[in-house]
Specification:
This protein has 239 residues and is an alpha/beta fold. It has 7 helices and 10 strands. The structure holds 2-amino-2-deoxy-6-O-phosphono-alpha-D-glucopyranose. 2-amino-2-deoxy-6-O-phosphono-alpha-D-glucopyranose binds next to helix 5.
């Protein structure tokens, strides 16, 4: 695990974007795993800037997103589908048919999870971008008593509902989501996790120094051979 500590989120965004650009320029048909939330937004801004300057093209990449809310229309302003399109996909040349999401509105969620896991088996993720929840969740793998394997439907924890409900000003936040499982995330060739702010310091301490335990799902990353953790000083303050 390699730690990179920066002064602020913008610097992190530039550094992470550079790693992604290097990857895509080396292998134009890279498979990229993307995350939502505030943490990766500066990275997405830097990717868009680089694309506009002609430094990279995303026309042959395939993307997989980590998670999606259940029972929220795909085009709702708070769906992760909308988030990714507004913050990245609408501004670059990725092909819509190469963009993959879990369908949180699928009637048969088990079949939907199998469909996604089959795609993930066919398309090995080159770089998986991750944020981390204040409670140590990755994707929507909440603290529990066992590590999760493939994609599944999860009931969100109160900590996650409290953290994310600020985005839901009109409608109540969904309490369920579909997420890639921990073992699927761990199969990515490289993992880049971004965390900023004091609110993430406990989770980062657990991730880096804690026991490997499903009560802090991010701690499993200690077992991955190629993980880069990008932090600001506040998120790194307990290390
Ligand atoms: C959400 C997402 C995660 C994200 C995390 C942190 O619940 N499901 O993928 O990493 O919360 O979000 P933020 O970066 O906004 O703190």
């Amino acid at each position: 695990m390699i730690l990179h500590i920066f002064n602020n989120a913008e610097e992190i965004g530039k550094a992470v974007a550079n790693l992604i650009i290097e990857q895509v320029n080396e292998k134009p048909d890279s498979v990229l795993g993307f995350a939502t939330g505030a943490s990766p937004v500066p990275t997405y801004k830097s990717l868009i800037k680089a694309y506009n300057k002609g430094k990279v093209s995303f026309k042959d990449i395939t993307t997989f997103n980590l998670d999606e809310y259940c029972d929220l229309p795909k085009d709702d302003k708070n769906s992760y589908y909308t988030f990714m399109h507004e913050n990245l996909f609408n501004h670059i040349d990725v092909k819509e048919e190469n963009v993959n999401f879990l369908n949180g509105n699928a009637e048969d969620t088990d079949a939907e999870c199998v469909r996604y896991d089959d795609l993930l088996t066919e398309n090995k993720i080159d770089i998986q971008l991750l944020g981390v929840g204040r409670n140590g969740h990755i994707g929507f793998n909440e603290p529990s008593n066992k590590f999760t394997k493939g994609s599944f439907k999860v009931r969100l924890s109160q900590s996650t509902i409290d953290a994310n409900s600020i985005y839901f000003d009109e409608n109540p936040m969904p309490h369920y989501a579909l997420t890639m499982g921990t073992v699927s995330i761990m199969k990515s060739k490289q993992i880049i996790l971004i965390a900023t702010g004091r609110g993430k310091a406990d989770a980062i301490d657990g991730l880096v120094n804690g026991d490997i335990t499903p009560s802090c799902p991010a701690s499993v990353l200690q077992l991955h051979p190629n993980v880069h953790i990008f932090l600001d000083k506040a998120a790194a303050s307990l290390l």
